[in-house]
Amino acid sequence: MDAVATLRRFNRTYTQRIGVLEESFLGTGRPLGVSRLLFEIGAAEGGIGVGDLRDRLDLDAGYLSRLLRRLEDDGLARVVPDRADGRRRVVRATAAGREAFADLEQRSADLAERLVAPLTERQRARLTDALATADLLVRAATVRLRPIDPTAPAAREAVRRYVAELDARFSGGFAPGDDAAEPGAVYVVATSDGRPVAYGGVRPAGEETAEIKRMWVGDAWRGAGLGSRMLRHLEELARQQGHRRVVLDTHRSLTEAIALYERAGYAPVERYNDNPYAQAFFAKEL
Amino acid sequence: MDAVATLRRFNRTYTQRIGVLEESFLGTGRPLGVSRLLFEIGAAEGGIGVGDLRDRLDLDAGYLSRLLRRLEDDGLARVVPDRADGRRRVVRATAAGREAFADLEQRSADLAERLVAPLTERQRARLTDALATADLLVRAATVRLRPIDPTAPAAREAVRRYVAELDARFSGGFAPGDDAAEPGAVYVVATSDGRPVAYGGVRPAGEETAEIKRMWVGDAWRGAGLGSRMLRHLEELARQQGHRRVVLDTHRSLTEAIALYERAGYAPVERYNDNPYAQAFFAKEL
DNA sequence: AGATTCCTTTGACCCAAGTCAGCTATCGTC
DNA sequence: GACGATAGCTGACTTGGGTCAAAGGAATCT
Questions:
Q1: Which of A132-136, A182-186, B227-231 is predicted least confidently?
Q2: Strand C positions with any atom < 7 Å from protein CB?
Q3: A105 interaction partners in chain B (CB closer than 8 Å)
Q4: Which of A53, A239, A261, B265 has the most CB atoms in a 10 Å sphere around its CB?
């Protein structure tokens, strides 16, 4: 059966069977939206900013605010000003809130338990395996690439991991320059649950040419097609900026990366800079 | 990772990523409920009864009626009296309705397509595989067993398939007696999407003993734990009826069934009837 | 110090989804 | 042909979930 048909079939099965169950399980009198919110707040140890919540749950600011008021009224959470920045406010679960959260956790676990209960040990293992695979691939297929300021926390984390990895791999160590202030450079990050999982940038390098920089894919995410997506995305950005050619350099030892570039239509070219860490140079016409 | 944790993780991934996508994709101006309804109506070739729709979508009669009115107003469906029974009404898609349905189908396929698009061929195959497995197991884990009159259509279909299978397997053919009128007998069916996938019954056989009859699991569903669930369920029914012992007979050639009984704690006993098709007899204390 | 921007809240809305009770037309049965 | 059951429809109502614009306080820039 082909991927699309299987996915559609699974989707139907899943929403019909589990979606319904979930609603009836997690709806403890409380509407589902409030429960989900409680999940997020309860899981955050030291409290969580209102803005962070908004990002995570992708809720309207006004709507979220109202939901928070409701949790406060029910005595499940307290919203207090952030000490560092008085505009911001931080949500913290009260004792009752933590209890309600624990209850939700329990219900959610019960639901899962009950779902796998009819299965034998072996089937459970098969299901676990299948779902773990599907989880990785679905996550990979749905991460959103978004532009990011290279000095923002998520970008810094991505670069830190990129550098650490190269440093570990290169015999001579790796000491990169700084991205911060390049005019016209655009950086892109892919995040999953708030953590960066892939990163890359493109910066103008002459009239017609753009250079791709700092391509990185988190190691747990390799083999899920993120690299080629990022590459295509960066090429598209370069195209939009009016460039007709992209170049990039890399270390000879990064064989997966080189394979990726070749698959994407990049051809080897002469050295075009004096980057001491690069021995392989590629270019592609857009 | 254990099954429950994986399932919970997957569930979050799935509802967050795909649920959201789906809503934005299938919501073509039309509310989701109407779209789902259109899906059902468009898929039914010769029209579908209002009651059938209600069963399938599990909607309130009043609500469904209103939704249908809306489809009629939009020119997507016509609701006409059933010729055979004037109380009933039948919903048929108009040309415009079929078009809208095709459009929905297309969008749904596009969504799936887009979702797998970032994946490589190999990843797609892995995902397909994983989802097909998960689909079978989730379906199996969530089928509901419910009591059924052995003369009801679903029960008849189950028995027909049961008999056909035994007939094909037994060298001498198989010609069963009739279930219909046994006093105190209870039959149970497991249905998935309206089709029976497993069947079985339990009937009193003396003071303390009940007999399990007609245990059958559809062949596409074997190896998913349905058999043992059905068996446990029937034992529970026997227990509720005050029996302390269940017996059953089977053909020697049904090795999977025999393995199932043995795993469930059944022990071989002497022949207790003159069923010409049975050579193996089992009993279990409750 | 004043202007501007950022973050959150508040008020006023909107629509989808669903429930419930009562109604009407039809069917099957006596 | 009367009567109860069945099938579906209508009106009135509730709730959940969500949008939008304006407001207000706090930070930041110049």
A1: A182-186
A2: 6-12, 15-22, 25-28
A3: none
A4: A261
Same fold? B3-118, B145-285 = no
Residue of A119, A122, A193 best to disrupt the B interface, most CBs of B under 10 A: A119
Q: A80 CA, C6 C1': separation in Å?
A: 17
How many residues in chain A?
286
For residues A265 and A211, give the distance between their C-alpha atoms in angstroms, rounded to a whole number: 15
Which tens digit of pLDDT belongs to each residue from A226-264? 888 899 899 988 998 889 999 999 988 888 899 999 999
Question: Is A58 near chain B, with CB under 8 Å?
Answer: yes
Of A222, A226, A200, A221, the C-alpha closest to A211 is A200
Kindly report the nearest CA distance between residue B138 and chain A, in angstroms. 8
Domain ranges of chain B: 3-118, 145-285
User: CB neighbours (10 Å) of residue A175?
Assistant: 11
Least confident interval from A63-67, A98-102, B181-185: B181-185
Q: What is the assigned CATH class of domain B3-118?
A: mainly alpha
Within an 8 Å CB–CB cutoff, is residue B263 touching chain A?
Answer: no
The CATH fold assigned to A145-285 is Aminopeptidase (3.40.630)
Distances (CA, A) of A103 to A27, A100, B65: 11, 5, 38
